[in-house]
Prior knowledge:
The complex is a heterodimer of chains A (281) and B (277).
Chain A: H1 3-46, H2 63-76, H3 83-114, H4 116-129, H5 138-145, H6 149-173, H7 177-185, H8 190-224, H9 233-242, H10 246-274
Helix pairs in contact in A: 2-10, 3-4, 3-6, 3-8, 3-9, 5-6, 6-8, 7-8, 8-10, 9-10
Chain B: E1 3-5, H1 11-15, E2 17-28, E3 35-46, E4 50-54, H2 61-69, E5 76-81, E6 84-85, E7 93-96, H3 108-118, H4 123-136, H5 152-164, E8 170-174, H6 182-199, E9 202-207, H7 210-216, E10 219-223, E11 230-236, H8 250-276
Parallel strand pairs in B: 4-9, 4-10, 7-8, 8-9
Antiparallel strand pairs in B: 1-11, 2-3, 2-5, 5-6, 10-11
Helix pairs in contact in B: 3-4, 3-5, 4-5
Amino acid sequence: MSARDEVLQESETYDAATVERRASRRDRWLTSTTFLALFALWFAVTGSGLWQPLIRPIFLPSPGAVLQAFLSLAQHGYQGNSLWHHIGVSFYRFAVAFSACVVIGVPLGLLIGANRTVRALLEPPIQAIRPIPKLALLPLFLIWFGIGNTSKIIIIAAPVFPLMVIAAMQAVRSVSDKKIQAAQSLGASRWTVFSRVILPACLPGIFTGIRMSISIGVTMLVAAELTATSDGIAWMSLTAAEFLSTDVVLVGVVIMAVMGFGLDRAIRALELRIVHWSGRD
Amino acid sequence: MSIEPIDLNSPERRRDAKLMIEGLSKTYGGGADAVQALPPIDLCIGLGDFLCVVGPSGCGKSTLLNIVAGFEPPTSGRAVLDGRVITRPGAERGVVFQQGALFNWLTTLENVAFGPRARGIPAAEARTSAQEMLEMVGLGSFAQKYPYQLSGGMQQRVGIARALVNNPEVLLMDEPFAALDQQTRELLQEEVRRIWQETGKTVMWITHSIEEALFLATHIIVMSARPGRIKAAYRSHFSENPDPLVGATAEFTAARREIVGLLREESQKARLQEELA
C-alpha cells in the first residue's frame, strides 16, 4: 500500500467517524426536543399558576405541584414511613425477584436449549405456564405464601421467570452450527464447547431477554403492592389515588419510570461492555 | 498438457492411502421423500496430496467433506483416516469454513489458541504457538484484534491459522475463499500454496472454482450433478510450478477448457433435473 493510499484510507475512516458523530449528536438533539415539547405541553395545559389550567389539577397537577409533592414526601415521608423506605422496599422486592429469575432461569434455559432430555422434560411445562395471566394467580400466592414479602417477590418473578428461561433457550438454539463444529474439530470436549462457545454466543440473546423483562417486572411490582401491604412506591401511588392526591400518584409513577429506565440503561451499559461483538458477525 | 487422468483407487494408491473413502454415500430423509445427496463413492488420498473437489452446486461435495470431518454420519460406507474409521469430529482433522466460524468473543490470538487450549496445552505455550501461526499467515500484528475488526480475507487467514496450529493430519477446506473478492482470493491462493509447500499437509479442498483447483491441487476430482458421482479424476502439476502467473500459460488454459467442458455438461444436467422436478 503506497503512502498516498494510507493517507486516503485514514482520511476516509476519519470522515466516516465524523459523520457518525454528527449524526448521533443530531439524534440526541431531536430526542431532547421531543421530551421538552411533552414537558412544555404538560406545563401549558396545567397552567402552572400562571394562567387558567385547561385540565383541573385534580386530574393532572402541574409540574411544579408534582415537584412540590416530591419535596414534601422526601421531607415528611408517606403514611408513617420515609419516601426512601418506600423506594427501598420496592427496589428490594424487585431486585430479589429479578436476580432470582436471572440466576435460576438463565442456567435452566441454557440447559434446556443444550440438552435434549432436559428439553423434553421441562420445555412443555414452561411453555404451558407462560400464557397463564400471572395476575390471576395473585390471590393464590397470597394464600400460599402469606402477606409478607415472599408472595410479592413471587408474583413479580412469575412472568419474568419463563421469559428468562425461554430467552436463554432460544439463544442456545440460534448458535450457529458452524461455530460448534469448528470447536469440535479443534478438539473441544462437550463441556468446552458449552462453556467457551455456546455460552458466550448466547450472551447477546440473554441480555436482550433481561432488558425486555424489566418493564414486565416493574408492572408486576404494581400488582404486588396492590393488596396486603403498607409500604412500597407502587402502594404509595395506589393509596394516594384513593384520596385523589394526583400529585403523589405522579411522584410514584415518575419514580417507577426512573427506576425502570435506570435499570435498562445500567444493563445496556453492561451489555455493551461484555458483548461488544453483538450484531457484528 | 499438465493434467492427466488418474485412477484414484489403483492398488498402489489404496496401499499408500492416508485417507480412504470406501463406498461412502449419503441419503437424506426416508421413504418416498428420500434424497440421495451422494451416491456410493470410493477415493484414496495419499499423504501430502492436495485434493480439490470441484462440481456443480448441490452435487454433494460439501456433504462429502462434512462426513470426513465427522459432522454427519454416512448412510453407507466409511471414511478411514490412518486406519481409523471416522465417527466424530476430531483435532486430527482441521476444518476451515467458508465464513462465520470464528469466535467473535475471542481475540484473533485467542481464536488461534483455542485448539491447543482445548487439547490441554498450557496457556502460555498455546499463546506462543498461536502467535507463531499468526505470523506465518501474515497477521502477527493483529493478535489483539477481534474477528469483526478484520477484513474477510484476514478472517480466512485466521481460520487457516486456527486449523493449522493443531498440526492436523488432514486439512479439510469447505470453499474457504468463495466469499472473497478476486484479488484477495488470488493473494490467499498463493499463500496457501506457500504454506502447503512448507508444511506438506494432506489437504481436501472443496471449491467451485476450476482455476483455484488447477492452481492449488495435486489431484482434482470432478463431480457430476446430483447425486454426485466422480465423473473424472486428474493428477495436476500446475501447483508444482513456482510461477505465480502459471494461470496465464497455454497448458493451464487447455486444462481449464477440459474441466470446464465436463462441468458444463453437468451444470446443464443439473438445471434439467431442477426443471423436471
